[in-house]
Amino acid sequence: MIESAAKAGEIEIKGVGKTYRTGKSVFRALDEIDLTIGANEFVTILGPSGCGKSTLLRIVAGLEEASEGELSVDAESIVGPGADRGMVFQGYTLFPWLTVRQNIEYGPKLRGVPILDRRKISNHYLRITRLESFANHFPKQLSGGMKQRVAIARALANGPKVLLMDEPFGALDAQTKLEMQEALLEVWDKEKTTVLFITHDIDEAIFLSQRIVVMAAGPGRVLREYRVELPAERTPEVREHPDFMKLKRELASLLKHREE
Ligand SMILES: Nc1ncnc2c1ncn2[C@@H]1O[C@H](COP(=O)(O)OP(=O)(O)OP(=O)(O)O)[C@@H](O)[C@H]1O
Questions:
Q1: Is any atom of ligand 1 closer than 6 Å to the C-beta of 91?
Q2: pTM given for the model
Q3: pLDDT at position 256, please?
Q4: What is the tens place of the pLDDT at every residue in 7-31?
Q5: Class of 11-259 in CATH
Q6: Does ligand 1 come within 6 angstroms of the Cβ of 77?
Q7: Distance, CA 120 to ligand 1 centroid (Å)?
Q8: Known InterPro entries for this protein (predicted)?
Q9: Spans of the chain below 50 pLDDT
């Protein structure tokens, strides 16, 4: 892990609401969201399309402002984007004109990190995302899964306390998605960042998380929270575990009833 000494990453969301006003129309996207995500915790927000998952994540990222409420990371108010929070989106957001290594070093370079230290950082993240042999490739030469590995490495290269992930594997085929989920848990285990992950895939939420927050729409709000009581080491067999199946049924039923 790099820059580990300063890491913690507790996110506090208190009474957060969001109202969009366009012309004469007013839309309440989020209402009274209260959530605390512990340092190094892996929390997934699960919910139907339009319940405000992305809006909430963008507010935590500092890319959008809440209409009311308070947000902080380690008791420091969120007032805009910051290096303490790294983001990974569904769409591939790599710079196509830069190599994998240059993409990873981009943030540190902007922050004025000297070349030798930048090299150390990129070597570390190339290694933990298993991309060492692709360091000099350009994004267009990579598969979708590899591009998302680079996106994760690039976000981590800034030493964030918190990783905010908005359906990062949503565009990948089923097999690659499973591989990426395992890869992400491996990285999370090594890096000890807090992860706030968005998905509408129930299996993905259970496999990855320690806690699942289910949101409902109209207006977007927290419906229920579940602690995932599965072995800490999430091998593929975990998907066959009776507790996995039980939670999957419960979540499917909750989400289905909300849609009826
Ligand atoms: N800039 C905006 N102006 C007006 N309404 C918006 C804006 N951004 C989002 N919304 C509305 O807020 C609601 C929540 O959107 P959001 O993208 O957060 O949902 P989501 O749960 O992430 O959905 P999905 O799973 O489909 O990505 C939606 O009804 C959306 O139309």
A1: no
A2: 0.93
A3: 84
A4: 789 999 999 999 999 888 999 999 9
A5: alpha beta
A6: no
A7: 39
A8: AAA+_ATPase, ABC_transporter-like_ATP-bd, ABC_transporter-like_CS, ABC_transporter_ATP-bind, P-loop_NTPase
A9: 4-5
